[in-house]
Predict the structure.
Amino acid sequence: GATIGILGGGQLGRMLSVAASRLGFKTCIFEPGGDCPASHVANYHFQASYDDTDALRKFGEAVDVITYEFENIPASALDQLEAICEVRPNRRALTVSQDRLTEKNFLQEVGLKVAPFMAVDTLEDMHKAVAEIGTPSILKTCRLGYDGKGQARLREESDAEQAFASMNGAAAVLEGFVDFSCEISVIGARAADGQVACFDPGENVHRHGILHTTTVPASVPASVRTDAVLIAARILNALDYVGVLGVELFVTPDGLIVNEIAPRVHNSGHWTQNGCVIDQFEQHIRAVAGWPLGDGSRHADVVMENLIGADMDRVADLSADPAVALHLYGKADAKAGRKMGHINRIQPRS
Ligand code: ATP
Ligand code: MG
Ligand code: MG
């Protein structure tokens, strides 16, 4: 059978490996860390850094297609791998979503709404941006931010200098604060032949910048759910995308505003593991392997909850709850803020 190469060895890589193996594929991960969640389930593990050109070449030659579980793959590694083996989703999907500024410009170009934003590279830019966008607002690093890290909130204009200083000179973007009624996300998929399918939008609640729960169905009108799915499809088609994509949206009285996109399987799509016959991980593997997409229609109501840090103390109780499906990542060290697993609490579809 074919071998699927996965860049990154975290929990997303682990769950992609499981899905691939269920379809008869072998998986090979590329991950600098040793004892990582995906290494426990993948068939092969290239443990090397992204500037190890020899390891990258051997990895590229050992696999039939390459995908990834995180978007911050260095450009040089991508250059090298692309020359040896097909990378799915494609380079444009990666480069667009590696940088918040590029991403927002792209989203606007394809006709989607984003929060008001301005690039901030210097303190002078910062003052201009605050004058233009006002407060409340959020300054975010363009690159490498996740789980609300690399962000500073401005309540009033006088917060500008401190917020700017907290970026440590990294390129940033100031965003107007969106007064949303709720947050939803869509997990969309596109096959190599252009077939598109989206999972039902989920409603997301964050705590301290980290996703806490995703609930399906989202408590928004059917028209909003349809809009959300159409937005995801537009992004997938515009990028000639192959694989699964996560789209985070703010629901406002003036319609949906795109917060950000992720060119990979997404935490807010974990509910699909117990709410659909074909989940986001299998859908992604199908797409990158050149298969048709599966049927991702929802057969249950689900609340997905992340297990973070000390939440692991609840596992014994949760394991005795018949309505709960447990998904643990095999991480040894339950540090504060660390995603250790998640649960899907299931009910018959309402
Ligand atoms: P992720 O782990 O999802 O990649 P991230 O670090 O990229 O997180 P964002 O998704 O940009 O961060 O922001 C985290 C959360 O902060 C959002 O889900 C939302 O709740 C809030 N937030 C971000 N930007 C805005 C905004 N412009 N207006 C209002 N709330 C916002
Ligand atoms: Mg993000
Ligand atoms: Mg986000």
